[in-house]
Amino acid sequence: MFLTGRFLLAMPGIGDPRFDQAVIAMCQHDADGALGVGVGATINGLGLHDVLRQLEIAPGEAPDAPVHFGGPVEVRRGFVLHTLDWGGQDTIDVAGRWALSGTLDVLRAIASGTGPARWVVALGYAGWGAGQLDEEMTRHGWMTVDGDDALLFDAPAAERWTKGFAAAGVDPRLLSPESGRA
Prior knowledge:
VC0467-like; AlgH-like; UPF0301 protein HBH26_11920; alpha+beta
């Protein structure tokens, strides 16, 4: 089962501090590998206006939204997850739920007020080679939940992990950070 268009929620005790309480929007998953963008944590002290100025784009109408920690791979590479009402040079439709853009045209459109209605900006991503995520899913570490616009665009980053579990009917406070063997 491929996970494109779903969220990965890090289980307590995942064993990698980079993914503690991570929420990853899965943008691509197939036999060749997987790519997801973290939306569960923001980068302290970095806002969209800072990123736009570094790229020599006038902030214009763009709000100074937080920038998310997208993952530990290529942490200087930017991505925008957004609603399907806008498309650019390399925009990818993610299972009909949201879109992913990684080129400057989406940032220019957001700054000019002609971009997507709702969006999340992130630096970095989480990536897996062929079969790697599939193998990880057989161990304690990740839970998957349906891709939900409200979780992605409406919930504050700090609440996405808890809200993701709640949407699946799970109270993460009751989860053990360890798994057993039968």
